[in-house]
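Protein modeling request. Please complete all fields; requests missing the sequence field cannot be processed.
Requester role: graduate student
Desired output: 3D structure, token encoding
Chains: 1
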Amino acid sequence: MTILLAVTVLLIVAAAVWLFNRMVRLRNQVHVAWSDVDVQLQRRHDLVPMLVETVKGYAHHEQGLLENIASERSAALKAGSPASRTDPETALGQNLGRLIALGEAYPDLKASANFSQLSSQLLQVEDTLQHARRFYNGSVREYNTALETFPTLLIASPLGFKPAEFFAAEADARANVEVQLS
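Delivered output (182 residues):
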């Protein structure tokens, strides 16, 4: 009887250790995925001032758009968590799309090698950022699902595991970007 009890206790302890280690691995995956998103956001933020300066020389009438981009970039850099970065990053992305579209309204700008190179780099960053966001949200989904399933939920909360935040677009940001060129 004592052997059976000892084996049962050992199995329960082994299962708890395995579940704990799994949750640590999933939480670390979420942190790494967010780091990948953050790196791509920083690359985008680094391109913004150069792109804005390039456009300023050609599109003097677009000062409001350029100011919006600058303020959204600042707000995004100040935000910390994925949830607090969603709004400014989404707005920044939309206005950067408008900025790139200015190339059609200003042929001299479109012909600029600097604008062309920066636009290309920005599009590449946006594509990489989209993949990084998907990976992050997939990692968050896997982690949060593990937190909410039995038997992990029995040990996760008491051991301090908290749900992670998704990086999601707001409802109005999901609509197509309207480009209006004067």
